[in-house]
Amino acid sequence: MILKPSSSSLCNLETLSPISSSLLHYSRYRRNGVVVFAKKDSNSSHRLSSTTGVVFEPFEEVKNDHFIIPSVPQVSLARQKFVDECEAAINEQINVEYNVSYVYHAMYAYFDRDNVALKGLASFFKESSEEERQHAEKLMAYQNTRGGKVKLQSILMPLSEFDHLQKGDALYAMELALSLEKLTNEKLLKLHSVKHHPSLHCFICLHS
Ligand SMILES: [Fe+2]
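# fe (ii) ion complex -> structure
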């Protein structure tokens, strides 16, 4: 039911705080103890009553500029409240994951050599390499879900020899791997600190 208050009844209206979501263009008023919802920029013919239960007009609200579907093919259809800073930080982390994956893959190849032949370590680093690649792919999927663009960057050529005079190759490789894990964790924490992106924070917590 549309509420059409008379000029006299409007005099008694007491403005309450606006509804928290800025997407809902309604204000609340109290009239004789009854809360009334009304569109902020509407004329009196669009005022809505709590007695009808109608507080949301989707076909009116999607006319807002925020909800216009882009027609340019280069622009994501899904992107909403996803800033460039967040997009760039995700691409940076994808590069970190790929770099670490590449190093672990090099370790796998080293320990799989016939003259090194530490098959357990080779298998461990192969799995580690695949795991880091999966991390990169999850970030890619999130980037695409949010309407960002994945931009792969260069990765450094890793070492191919992991022998160490004092430590030997196995200890040296494991220590290097531990350092890389700590570094990757630091980078993830940095990504997590990107402000105003609660869904990204949730994503990192769930997948790291
Ligand atoms: Fe990772």
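# post-check
Residues 97, 132, 135, 184 surround fe (ii) ion (CB under 6 Å).
The chain has two domains: 7-67, 84-207.
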